[in-house]
């Protein structure tokens, strides 16, 4: 027995190491791709640094400026230099904000995590709850109403839904603020933050909830059609017990793995909502950096997003493998 | 009474179900809601196609005297903050919105079929790599990725935006194509066909294509839907088509000004058209999926 | 014979017991009707069924698929899906009326009063839970306050009851660690946990191999004897029913058409459907050149015809059968049958059942015929297919390989029917696919390895000694060069037929398209003018109506689909036909139709035929020579008659003794009476 556990421990380390290697390799590939694509794209990065002055520059001035920003060399050299600096923790400065990229992102990342994190947790729990409730009442009024609402809400673009909410609650009724993360001038009050969060959070949650609830419902129903449920009932188990001990238990691994994959999706959804609500998070930042060719900022944002994507994928894969092993 | 107990043996029974009854049953199986969805969609599509005939105003004309007019007899749906007629913009804008949806779907379906079929026919290790790639791309948040690509491509036009949406939306179809190809390849009728000497192209044309086309049809229709959503989102954010190019999304990009003027019609009318169109697509897609599922469970 | 008397004695005991206490009547079902709501309309799955069950008794419910057997059991246990409705009737268990019980009351009764074992042991256990936990769960429902220790002991006890050794160890294993037979034992342990008074077994042995089936049947008998419970045993196989049951109920189209003790049903059947079923048993076909097949197909329960549902397949149908449903006539205390033939006004009919009592004469006839066939066949004794040292290895992953076929050699002569039998996973299908060049035989001893084995390089030996070779008409089809050279001939003269699984025909092609596919692939000019005419001809040939020409496979029944597959294979006029379990998924009566068709076509065309099956009786009936496969090896080959009467290999012996024989119970004279 002891030997066996040792073996599995070594196995775990082995698997973990492999995953880590895959992770680092993927991040490297990703950073190269993003670097090349962003430099090859049309657009003048000097504009983002110097604003309108860039257009009036003499050729000598341009050359000097490019040299200063390290833009005059080949892309490969630029990449190598960027990589070297990045390994030392220096990701360069933002052309637009003229401060280190890390600090620009650092200011905003909390806001996105707050919105995305709470949204994700809410979606996770509510979807499970709704899915189970629908599966229990398959074909009845509650189920069909939830499914109908889900279908309809999946057809409403998030940005338009946000607009409607703003129009209704902040323009007409004036109950809730329609933009920003806090009222200008007074940052810090929890109550204020919460009030600003309500509308964006509603959109995030309602936009994704139905899809996952529907998925949970369908996979529970598929389990309920399996033969072992009949045996469990023939043994004398109650319906509730069969549902929780058997069906839900079997559905959970795949649900967890799907939820892991969808972390980036939900975060990606918040990016758009952030721009509609002018919520100072990573979404607005990405949008701006893409528009103004703020390379260093864009690089780090892409890398962060990509890392989340790859990490979530690895987690999901691990979860899925565990589920498969049990079967 | 006596002849009732005579052996008559096997007699053909009157056919339990006549052919026309069967047909009627089949037609009843097609749901009313999907017929309704199809009709609405047809009206919208025809309206967009033939708008030159019945729309009198120029959608691009800035009528600065009549900015932000609420719906009235002159302007059926009102005017936007730049004084353009929303009624005209709806139809001309729908044209481009639908066009982009279709074009993006064609591009992504083409990519998906090629990628999926290659992956399905590839040896196991290559298949694993390709599917891994598709999965990672799939879990990328689609809209930010599209924003990034569009920003990189520069000033958008209908073609470039279709291209961007096409190459960000093919992964899920590719996965289905691949698993269908794998499944069908293992099917006994394909094995039988191969043992009779059916070549690769015979199997591809006679067996693979008809079978996976039906199973991806639903996803293709859903893809049109998500392409339209994505286009409108991009245009709304100002990264997609410029304001001068009228689409349902770019009409909504004026919403900030509209909000200040509290002009609900600028936001709600194009949005309503958008949502109704999307609903119709969803309904058609669901109908296709149900039909496909029924076909399989009939076995 | 001995078994029969023993059983009769037991039944006498039961009988006296029954009259001793009235309580022995455990289950009483009266006029039960159940219908399902489907989008196409209501399906009457169970119609007006009544029966009683006494303690310690086994009732076998026999019928073809879709006749409402399972629905009946599930209706009693109230396990039917929500679309089902109990229309009328009453159910009493142990003197308690449970007809009106809701889910709340039922889950208290299930497990304790009655329990159920299902058909497919692969799906009826939760894959994500250890078997011990699943059995423990069933115990705990009924004894919620049981201690851990006691629970553990009880689970081990239950597992020992169903004859699982090393129960303590195996408790913590998951279902995927077990084979099908072991899983079925686990299912039984879970079902027996609440000490039920009635056990429903819904085709518990259908998904299992013959030898395992025999073990499970024996286990059922033992447990029933030990626990003294009543069993309802649902099966489609009459010979299994004869082995397992005391009484038999024959169901057709949702109705019990005949019910009686085993002796009554097998020796004195009264309903034409029972006659048909009995005749369709290959045991009865001894000395004939065709199996009896009930004509037609079982009806869908969707819109049943007026009158007796069986009339349209009944050669003895009376005029009244087409107008009025027959009531259940009483023949004796225990024997009832629903047919107008039992009405006093009906003409007297001699049951058409020939038993093996006078089989010696028939046997002689057959021998003579066979001798004649051999004489005729002597002219082309030529070997058509010669399989030598065939080995095929599947690699599961990089390290483990699985030898599916291991050094198999046999020959098929021209015009011969060669049967290949063996359990699932014994490599039969792999052999078929290797012969058809779908797999390349990859095993044997690879040259390099052999060199290593011999320690020396052997350049003079170009081919290893044991190289797999499949010679078809003298052409080595394993050799790519030769194969390519004769590709067209090989592909048009060898054809394969698969088990009907719904995937053997392309769902999106019409029937005539499917039948003429090989012609189009090989660019053969259709001999009968157009492709359509060719399809028409072939359909006529395999007994399909022309009206099906433009249908899709999903509109056909299983038997019809298999006919289409046969027509497709025959359209190339093959010289070798390989059939991989062609009848395994069909109903008994349809199986007989298809096997008859094979025999008929083989006589007409004279092709060689490789018939792969796990059903010994069919092989015995159809084949000239038989090979037995066991774990990838061909353990015995021989003439069919000889192999079945005098098996040499221990596995063949085990296989033959495991075969359920209705004949055993049927020995003795048949009373032909009215």
Report Rg of chain C: 27 Å
Overall strand count of chain C: 22
Helix coverage percent of chain A: over 70%
**For the record, what is the CATH homologous superfamily label of the largest domain in chain A?**
MetI-like
- The quaternary organization reads as heterotrimer
Greatest interface and its residue counts? B-C, 39 and 56 residues
Number of helices of chain C: 25
**Count the helices of chain A. How many?**
13
CATH topology of the largest domain in chain A: MetI-like fold
How would you characterize the largest beta sheet of chain A? none
Shape of chain A: flat
Q: Strand share of the residues of chain A? A: under 5%
Structural class of chain C: alpha/beta
Commentary on this structure:
The complex is a heterotrimer of chains A (327), B (299) and C (674). Chain A has 327 residues and is mainly alpha-helical. Chain A is built from 13 helices and no strands. Chain A folds into two domains: 2-87; 101-326, MetI-like fold, CATH 1.10.3720.10. Chain B is mainly α. Helix content of chain B is 72%, strand content 0%. Chain B starts with 18 loop residues before the first helix and ends with a helix. Chain C is built from 25 helices and 22 strands. Chains B and C meet through helix 9 and helix 10 of B and helix 16, strand 18 and helix 18 of C.
């Amino acid at each position: 027995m002891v030997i066996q556990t040792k073996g599995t421990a070594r196995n775990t380390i082995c698997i973990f190491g492999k995953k880590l290697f895959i992770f680092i390799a993927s991040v490297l590939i990703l950073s190269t791709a993003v670097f090349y694509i962003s430099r090859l794209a049309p657009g003048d990065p000097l504009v983002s640094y110097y604003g309108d002055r860039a257009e009036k520059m003499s050729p000598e001035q341009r050359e000097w400026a490019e040299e200063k920003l390290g833009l005059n060399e080949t892309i490969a050299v630029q990449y190598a230099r960027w990589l070297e600096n990045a390994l030392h923790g220096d990701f360069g400065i933002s052309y637009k904000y003229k401060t280190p990229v890390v600090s620009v992102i650092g200011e905003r990342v909390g806001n996105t995590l707050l919105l995305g994190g709470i949204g994700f947790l809410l979606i996770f729990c509510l979807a499970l709850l709704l899915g189970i409730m629908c599966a229990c009442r398959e074909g009845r009024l509650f189920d069909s109403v939830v499914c109908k609402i889900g279908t309809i809400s999946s057809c409403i673009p998030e940005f338009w839904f946000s607009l409607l909410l703003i129009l209704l609650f902040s323009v007409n009724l004036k109950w809730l603020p329609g933009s920003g993360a806090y009222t200008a001038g007074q940052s810090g009050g929890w109550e204020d933050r919460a009030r600003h969060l309500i509308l964006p959070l509603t959109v995030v949650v309602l936009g994704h909830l139905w899809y996952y609830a529907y998925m949970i419902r369908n996979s529970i129903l598929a389990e309920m059609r399996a033969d072992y449920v009949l045996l469990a009932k023939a043994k004398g188990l109650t319906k509730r017990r069969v549902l929780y001990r058997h069906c839900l238990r079997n559905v959970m691994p795949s649900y967890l793995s799907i939820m892991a994959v969808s972390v980036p999706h939900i975060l990606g959804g918040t990016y758009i909502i952030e721009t509609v609500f002018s919520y100072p998070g990573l979404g607005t930042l990405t949008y701006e950096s893409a528009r103004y060719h703020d390379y260093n900022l864009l690089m780090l944002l892409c890398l962060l997003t990509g890392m989340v994507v790859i990490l979530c994928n690895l987690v999901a894969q691990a979860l899925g493998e565990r589920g498969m092993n049990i079967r | 009474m006596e002849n009732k107990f005579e052996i008559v043996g096997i007699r053909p029974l009157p056919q339990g179900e006549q052919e026309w009854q069967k047909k009627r049953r089949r037609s009843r199986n097609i749901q009313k809601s999907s017929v309704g969805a199809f009709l609405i969609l047809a009206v919208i599509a025809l309206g967009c196609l033939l708008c030159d005939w019945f729309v009198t105003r120029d959608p691009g004309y800035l009528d600065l005297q009549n900015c932000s007019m609420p719906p009235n007899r002159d302007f059926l749906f009102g005017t936007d903050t730049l004084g353009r007629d929303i009624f005209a913009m709806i139809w001309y804008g729908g044209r481009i919105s639908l066009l982009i949806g279709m074009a993006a779907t064609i591009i992504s379906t083409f990519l998906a079929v090629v990628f999926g079929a290659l992956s399905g026919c590839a040896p196991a290790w290559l298949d694993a790599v390709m599917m891994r790639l598709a999965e990672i791309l799939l879990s990328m948040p689609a809209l930010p990725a599209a924003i990034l690509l569009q920003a990189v491509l520069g000033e958008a036009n209908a073609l470039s935006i279709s291209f961007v949406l096409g190459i960000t939306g093919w992964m899920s179809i590719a996965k289905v194509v691949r698993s269908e190809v794998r499944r069908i390849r293992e099917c006994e009728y394909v094995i039988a066909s191969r043992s009779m000497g059916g070549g690769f192209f015979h199997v591809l044309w006679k067996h693979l294509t008809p079978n996976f086309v039906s199973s991806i049809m639903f996803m293709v229709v859903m893809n049109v839907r998500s392409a339209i959503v994505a286009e409108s989102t991009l245009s709304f954010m100002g990264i997609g088509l410029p304001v001068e190019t009228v689409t349902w999304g770019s009409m909504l990009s004026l919403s900030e000004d509209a909000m200040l003027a509290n002009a609900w019609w600028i936001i709600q009318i194009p949005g309503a058209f958008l949502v109704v169109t999307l609903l119709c697509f969803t309904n058609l897609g669901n109908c296709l999926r149900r039909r496909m599922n029924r076909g399989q469970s009939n076995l | 014979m001995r078994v029969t008397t023993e059983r009769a004695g037991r039944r006498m005991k039961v009988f006296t017991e029954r009259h001793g206490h009235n309580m022995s009547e455990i289950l009483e079902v009266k006029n039960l009707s159940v219908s399902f709501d489907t989008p196409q309309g209501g399906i009457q799955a169970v119609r007006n069924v009544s029966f009683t069950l006494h303690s310690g008794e086994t009732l076998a419910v026999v019928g073809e698929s879709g006749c409402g057997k399972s629905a009946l059991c599930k209706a009693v246990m109230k396990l039917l899906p929500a679309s089902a409705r109990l229309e009328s009737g009453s159910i009493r268990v142990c003197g308690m009326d449970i007809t009106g019980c809701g889910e709340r009351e039922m889950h208290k009764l299930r497990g304790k009063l009655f329990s159920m074992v299902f058909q497919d042991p692969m799906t009826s256990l939760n894959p994500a839970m250890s078997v011990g936990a699943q059995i423990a769960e069933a115990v705990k429902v009924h004894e919620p306050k049981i201690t851990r220790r006691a629970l553990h002991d009880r689970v081990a006890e239950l597992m020992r009851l169903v004859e699982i050794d090393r129960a303590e160890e195996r408790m913590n294993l998951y279902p995927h660690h077990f084979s099908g037979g072991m899983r079925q034992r686990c299912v039984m342990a879970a079902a027996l946990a609440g000490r039920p008074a009635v056990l429903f077994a819904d085709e518990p042995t259908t998904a299992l191999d013959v030898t395992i089936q025999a073990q499970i049947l024996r286990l059922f008998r033992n447990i029933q004897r030990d626990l003294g419970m009543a069993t309802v045993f649902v099966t489609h196989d009459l010979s299994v029913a004869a082995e397992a049951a005391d009484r038999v109920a024959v169901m057709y189209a949702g109705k019990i058409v005949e019910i009686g003790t085993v002796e009554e049903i097998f020796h004195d059947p009264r309903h034409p459907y029972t006659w048909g079923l009995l005749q369709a048993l290959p045991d009865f076909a001894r000395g004939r050149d065709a199996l009896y097949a009930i004509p037609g197909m079982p009806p869908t329960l969707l819109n049943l015809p007026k009158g007796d549902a069986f009339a349209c397949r009944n050669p003895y149908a009376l005029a009244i059968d087409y107008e009025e449903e027959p009531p259940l006539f009483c023949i004796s205390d225990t024997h009832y049958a629903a047919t107008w033939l039992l009405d006093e006004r009906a003409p007297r009919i001699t049951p058409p059942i020939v038993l093996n009592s006078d089989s010696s004469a028939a046997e002689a006839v057959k021998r003579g015929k066979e001798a004649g066939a051999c004489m005729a066949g002597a002219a082309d004794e030529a070997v058509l297919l010669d399989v030598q040292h065939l080995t095929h290895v599947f690699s599961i992953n990089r390290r483990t390989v699985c030898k599916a076929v291991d050094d198999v050699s046999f020959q098929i002569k021209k015009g011969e029917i060669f049967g290949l039998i063996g359990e699932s996973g014994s490599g039969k299908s792999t052999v078929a696919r290797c012969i058809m060049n779908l797999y390349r035989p990859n095993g044997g001893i690879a040259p390099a390895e052999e060199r290593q084995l011999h320690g020396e390089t052997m350049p003079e030996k170009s081919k290893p000694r044991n190289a797999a070779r499949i010679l078809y008409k003298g052409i080595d089809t394993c050799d790519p060069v030769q194969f390519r050279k004769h590709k067209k001939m090989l592909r048009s003269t060898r054809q394969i037929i698969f088990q009907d699984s719904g995937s053997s025909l392309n769902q999106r092609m019409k029937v005539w398209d499917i039948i003429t596919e090989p012609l189009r692939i090989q660019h053969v000019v259709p001999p009968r003018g157009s492709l359509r005419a060719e399809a028409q001809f072939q359909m006529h040939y395999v007994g399909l109506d022309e009206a099906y020409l433009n249908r899709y496979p999903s509109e056909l029944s299983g038997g019809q689909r298999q006919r289409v597959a046969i027509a497709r294979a025959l359209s190339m006029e093959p010289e070798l036909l390989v059939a991989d379990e062609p009848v395994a998924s069909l109903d008994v009566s349809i199986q007989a139709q298809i096997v008859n068709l094979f025999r008929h076509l083989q006589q007409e065309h004279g092709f060689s035929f490789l018939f792969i099956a796990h059903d010994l009786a069919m092989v015995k009936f159809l084949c000239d020579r038989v090979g037995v496969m066991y774990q990838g090896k061909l353990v015995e080959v021989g003439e069919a008659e000889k192999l079945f009467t005098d098996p040499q290999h221990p596995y063949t012996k085990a296989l033959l003794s495991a075969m359920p024989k209705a004949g055993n119970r049927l020995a003795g004279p048949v009373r032909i009476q009215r």
